[in-house]
Amino acid sequence: MIHKNTLTVTAAAAALAFGLTACGGMSDEDADASAENTSTEETTGAEETEAEGTTETAGENFGPGCAAVPEDGEGSFEGMADDPVATAASNNPALSTLVTAVGEADLGDTLNSAEDITVFAPANDAFEKIPQEDLDALLADQEQLTEVLTYHVVEGRQAPADLEDGTFTSLQGGEVTTEGSGEEFTVNGDSAVICGNVQTANATVYIVDTVLMPE
Predict the structure, then answer these.
(1) pTM, to two decimals
(2) What one-character-per-residue DSSP string does 128-149 give?
(3) Burial (Cβ within 10 Å: 0-12, 13-18, ≥19) of residue 215
(4) Which tens digit of pLDDT belongs to each residue from 6-56?
(5) Cα 3 to the chain's mean position, in Å?
(6) Residue 6, C-beta contacts closer than 8 angstroms, at least 6 positions apart
(7) How far apart are CA 188 and CA 134, in angstroms?
């Protein structure tokens, strides 16, 4: 019996305030000019810092499996960033079997409406490791399929650094563990990340080479 969980993540907003201090011993005109220059410099610095921070958060895609992602169009990295995760995956031919499974489990709307999640998405080759008879049986069993697929989804947008020694609670309810560093990470010890840090409108995606099975 599967308990369907509703994944809701509330994001907290942060504010950055800048203060200006006038220097003593100046005329009013000099003080005004100094304050204006300081304000311009600090505003420019803030914009540069914000831009750098955004780039750092977004990061770069990595892994040999990234070569299978289209270079342009809706299924490319840039195209996927504009769509919620289930829609983004449906445009990527490297994830076509996963998309079929999500459709059979009727999870598309659930994934698209979730806020700030991480998805460990099995590539087509990952499903090919499952004997065809067993895969067909899994796809035909919506309850079991839902349990398996929701096990691949965890709360929050997890950055590569978070995967170095991570333990996360999945939408299915079980724990998912990760380890590694740099551009080499594994999930649950034996499923390798082959294309990491893929961004969609509501999720960070790590494409993996083995389907994760909950205990």
Answers:
(1) 0.73
(2) HTS-HHHHHHHHH-HHHHHHHH
(3) exposed
(4) 333 333 333 333 333 333 444 455 545 444 544 444 444 444 433 333 333
(5) 24
(6) none
(7) 21
Question: Which residue stretches of the chain are H helix?
Answer: 28-58, 77-80, 85-90, 96-105, 108-113, 124-128, 132-140, 142-150
What is the predicted pLDDT for the residue at 29?
Answer: 52
Which residues make Cβ contacts (< 8 Å) with residue 202, sequence separation at least 6?
A: 84, 85, 112, 114, 115, 116, 117
pLDDT tens profile 127-138: 999 999 999 999
196 phi and psi angles, rounded to 5 deg: -110, 160
DSSP for residue 22: P
Residue with token string 């590569």: 160
Residue type, 124: N
- Close Cβ partners of 17 (under 8 Å, ≥ 6 residues apart): none
Residues of the chain with pLDDT under 50: 1-27, 31, 33-35, 37-58
DSSP secondary structure letters along 116-131: SEEEEEE-HHHHHTS-
- Rounded CA gap, 129 and 115, in Å? 31
